[in-house]
Design a protein that fits this description.
Helices cover about 75% and strands about 0% of the residues. It has about 110 residues and is mainly alpha-helical. It is built from four helices and no strands. The protein is elongated, with a radius of gyration of 18 Å.
């Protein structure tokens, strides 16, 4: 690919990441309870950052690509664990689901 095409690709990926994160912010504001907000936030943490990482990888520098892979692997491993820990703590605190039609199956 030419330098111009790589630059356009990187710009497009950054724009895509900004759009995903903007939609996630809207979802976090509009969702009715902590559990659904947490779902939107945890998805955005990975899916919104992924295009930024791919844009950084377009440099072609092996050191940057290696760092991008490490950051991506770290996000894949830690995002669901962190979301689960937050949801579990909220459940133990007694945070109720306010989503219409939601059924709390964890009460036995």
């Amino acid at each position: 690919m030419t330098t111009s095409a790589v630059a356009w690709l990187a710009d497009g990926l950054i724009l895509l990441g900004l759009i995903i994160l903007s939609i996630a912010i809207y979802g976090i504001i509009r969702m009715p309870d902590l559990y659904t907000r947490l779902h939107g936030a945890s998805k955005a943490a990975f899916l919104g950052v992924l295009p930024f990482l791919l844009a950084a990888a377009t440099t072609g520098d092996p050191a940057i690509i290696f760092r991008v892979l490490l950051i991506g692997a770290f996000l894949i491993l830690t995002t669901p664990v962190a979301a689960h820990a937050i949801a579990h703590a909220a459940h133990l605190k007694g945070e109720r689901m306010e989503t219409p039609g939601a059924v709390d199956e964890s009460q036995g």
